[in-house]
Structure formats: C-alpha cells, structure tokens
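PROTOCOL LOG
Step 1. Enter all chains and additional molecules of the complex.
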Amino acid sequence: MNWDIKDIKDWDWRKHPRGGLIRDAGNAKKFKTGGWRSARPLWDEEKCVQCLICHIFCPDCSIKTKDEKMTGIDYDFCKGCGICAYECPHDAITMIDEAEARKKEEAEEGRA
Ligand code: SF4
Ligand code: SF4
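Step 2. Run joint prediction.
Step 3. Record the structure below.
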C-alpha cells in the first residue's frame, strides 16, 4: 500500500481516522514505507565484499540477500536512514537525494 497524500493541502484532523492503530498482526508488510524516503542508498556491487554488515545493521530488513550474499536494496521498504552507508567498511553504499533520483528515473522513462 502506498500513502495517499493528495489532500495534504486541505488536511484536517477531523477528516482522518486516528493513526497508529495496528488492527492485524503482521500487516506492516502491506505498507510500502519506502515512500517516506528522502535519501536513497545506492549499492556498488563492484566495491562490495559481501561482508553483510549492512544487512545486520539495517533497521528495516531492506538489504536483500540470496544464498548468504547481498543482491540489492528493497526500495519498497528502505526508509533512507543511511545506516548501511555509514556502516559499510568498503564505501560500497552511497546516499543520494531521493527527489533527484526519481526525477532522473522519470526523465529516463520519458515521464518527465
Ligand atoms: S556492508 Fe558494504 S561491503 Fe558489506 S555487504 Fe554491505 S555493501 Fe557489501
Ligand atoms: S538506508 Fe537504512 S533502511 Fe535503507 S537499506 Fe540502508 S540501513 Fe536499511
């Protein structure tokens, strides 16, 4: 589920149900919390030595792995905290501006 913020300019607390309610166990995976991100981690596979320190430190389990190796970053859930980039001992992850990254992607896809 993505956050719908179309009415943000007319926002009024009376129009929305109270937040912070957990109605069903395990429902966090339905919310793509990556939508909050203002910075995006970029992984450089060439520099990566597969130590998986980033995987241990990521608070959102957003470092993807397969067969005990890092395979990428799950942008659906990564909140862009930058901990992985800070902890990586080989500078294999760098943080970039999310808005700029999205603009570039849209231009490449011809949506801008
Ligand atoms: S911490 Fe850095 S070197 Fe280690 S697996 Fe993650 S990206 Fe690769
Ligand atoms: S920026 Fe934060 S949430 Fe995203 S992959 Fe790195 S440690 Fe995880």
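Step 4. Note key features.
The mean pLDDT is 89.
The longest strand covers residues 39-43.
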